[in-house]
């Protein structure tokens, strides 16, 4: 059975996804052009990896990259509680302008944990770049650090979405667009 046949509904096609990534990268390039120190872009593994790679390669500025992982979700669509940091950054964030790159903000628990972590490590600002934002599910407000900004690709309706890095039970991350599975595949 093909991958596409598991999808009930496409929310954003591959072209729409990549066009929006290009727009976000242009906006970030403009906003950070006058910042004297190169910013540090931190991708949140695993889900953000595809978006992260596409985004940073479109930003026309010297920048550093690193990864972090905060585990909060179980194997399905339900969170298994407060996230904890299971992979820390390699680089020093003290005094850095950090942009945290996420595939999706849902309850906000993962991002809040990561922002607090970066602030405690002395980042001078923390901005967020999330491809999708699902504000209808928010439990924790997103508090930026310093003059950090919140960039978002699209507002996501209240579906459990897959593709472009986002998984259900560790599958479907390789789907090149974003969609919703047929009900029989959420099992
Ligand atoms: O706003 P929240 O409710 O915290 O949800 C968002 C987080 O959930 C997903 O990660 P997950 O923990 O499933 O790990 P993954 O990136 O490996 O899929 C997603 O990639 C975000 O990091
Ligand atoms: O809708 C979603 N899809 C995949 N992972 C997620 N993590 C939080 N929300 C989602």
TrEMBL record:
This is Hypoxanthine phosphoribosyltransferase. Residues 16-168 form the Phosphoribosyltransferase domain. It is an enzyme of class 2 (transferase). GO terms for cellular component: cytosol. Pfam families: Pribosyltran (PF00156). It comes from Hibiscus syriacus (Rose of Sharon). It catalyses: IMP + diphosphate = hypoxanthine + 5-phospho-alpha-D-ribose 1-diphosphate. GO terms for molecular function: hypoxanthine phosphoribosyltransferase activity; magnesium ion binding; nucleotide binding. SUPFAM superfamilies: PRTase-like (SSF53271). Belongs to the purine/pyrimidine phosphoribosyltransferase family. Pathway: Purine metabolism; IMP biosynthesis via salvage pathway; IMP from hypoxanthine: step 1/1. Its cofactor is Mg(2+). CDD domains: PRTases_typeI. It is found in: Cytoplasm. Its main location: cytoplasm. Keywords: Cytoplasm, Glycosyltransferase, Magnesium, Metal-binding, Nucleotide-binding, Purine salvage, Transferase. Its EC number is 2.4.2.8. One of its GO terms (biological process) is IMP salvage.
